[in-house]
Write a structure and sequence with these properties.
about 15% strand; 7 strands; 7-stranded mixed β-sheet; alpha/beta; disordered N terminus; binds zinc ion
Length: about 280
Amino acid sequence: MAPNLSKREDDENKVLPKIISGEAPLVVVLSPHLDDAVFSLGGAIASCTRQAGKVTILTIFAGIPTRLPQVGRHFHDKYNLPPNIVTLRRCEDVRAASVVGAQTVHLNHLDAIYRHRDGDGSFLSMRDVLSADMNMEADLVSDVMQALTNCAAMLHADIVCVPLGIGGHIDHLITREAAERWVASKSTHHTVLQFYEDFPYVARATGDWLYDMTSGARPLLIEASEQDWKIKLQAVACFSSQISIMWSGGLSYEAEMLAYARRLPTEVQFAERVWQREIERDQEA
Ligand SMILES: [Zn+2]
């Protein structure tokens, strides 16, 4: 659900002068899980906070499960995870956020692998989680949108960054959908929505995600200094429980992040990319 385009122009007119004049923007990065924001935008967050910007990393699916459905049990067994893994991941997230100078908010919605669903039952495998039909999660989208509405950090945000949903993880798609609905429903229209490229999914994606997921949007490259990139890698290193799962073979996370940055269309060595919808002036008449 796309926000009203004429409102988008109004949003930009209010936010961009603030940034250009050096006034610290309030930024909220919506992170589906306890790592996505720093993996995907750690350099941009470090750069923003170094320049006095205020960044809150708001993690949606940070709820602590009380029992494990089949896919959760399988995941825990496969990676030998302790029962309190979500609590440990919350601690990792707080440490990582402090490295990049951000605040954290953890919401209590359960990760897809921990959700018990009525009707069709719980997800049965990770393949299920990565190919789920969002219509089956309509109530959860509404719940997340309501949680965003109730969140103080969201109320005054100049920019809200949300995942594009590359990789098709249902939690990433729900986060994006809820944020788009939240922006469309606001009575004061001063928030710019930007879409970030989900890492490491973007680096491993096959198929034409660029056109599928960025329709009507323009790219904004966020260049990072060498210092900001080092800070990003230090922050990523805080997520040791996830590094051992996501980079268990092949490239290291440092190498994969650098390879991704070098594929972006910029001369600088370190960069990340977000997407923002173009204003379609023809539709305003
Ligand atoms: Zn995620």
